[in-house]
Amino acid sequence: MPAExxxxxxxxxxxxxxxxxxxxxxxxxxxxxxxxxxMAGFFYKQAMEERDHAMMMVxxxxxxxxxxxxxxxxxxxxxxxxxxxxxxxxxxxxxxVTAQINELTRIAREENDFASDQFxxxxxxxxxxxxxxxxxxxxxVKRSRDIEAIEDxxxxxxxxxxxxxxxxxxxxxx
Length: 174
Ligand SMILES: [Fe+2]
Ligand SMILES: [Fe+2]
What we know:
Blueprint: H1 4-33, H2 37-63, H3 85-110, H4 114-144, H5 147-157
């Protein structure tokens, strides 16, 4: 069994990941309304990844015979000032999640919960990538503000990310 403190914190992180999922759906819908299909597609895909993160955590708790307690989530931001705002919000969110992932790792270590420590390692790597991606995308949307140039960048640079064979298993298997 993982440490009780870790289980509690991981259950609350499941809520944070689902909140991130909804936030990215909201960002995607905003760009879809602006007829920016590449940006919309990018955020729909990010949303699915956040959902998968939550379901990886669910699977881990099940595998470890720990109780799964799915939390409610706060409503996402739905009003954006301009087309830079959703990306700025996404970068802030990814930085916040990085701190949450680090905190989970710290708890696992404090509790000598080695399996949970190892489980968190994939998320640490994932957060480095997600912060970097949002950081670069923010630079592009700030500098360009030209819809076609932004769409081209997303299609060219963020179009195809292959499956990660090292990723933890997802509850439900999808
Ligand atoms: Fe995530
Ligand atoms: Fe993320």
